[in-house]
Amino acid sequence: MSGIIPADAVAIGLGAFAGAMARYQAGRLAAEYIASDPKRFGHLTGWHTAAINVSGSFVLGGVTGAPLVHSKRNPAANLVGSGKHSYNHYFGLTPRAKLMFGVGFCGSFTTFSTYSVDVVNWISQGKMGKAAAYVMTNNVGGILAAAAGLVVVKKLFGV
Length: 159
Prior knowledge:
The chain is mostly helical. The protein has helices at residues 6-36, 38-41, 47-65, 95-109, 112-124, 128-157. It contains six helices and no strands.
């Protein structure tokens, strides 16, 4: 096993920073929206985490499904006599970009820990139905969103 490649660490760190800031902003906007009319929107408290987790699962599915390209390859070389979908070899993500978006951005944008604490809190408050719906939304919704992201990107790239 070799050590971490500094450029990979930087890519992951940049992605993580962007993901954490996006998550912070989404949470802040959700809190402001709920606070603007708590009687009307108070029931939405905590649900922004499910929306973040499901949308992050969609993005990670897309990152996973994106074709792998190598940045040092000459894109024009892929277009010569490679068949009708040869342009697909030009478009995609490099391994480092997959690390940045997958491990970095999605890893810090989505949050299993907040989801877990929300479930525990609702169970301790006797809100079993809300906790169960939240678990189903995060788990089933996240899996379906990841599958959808994978399928969408594979269709876009013809892979």
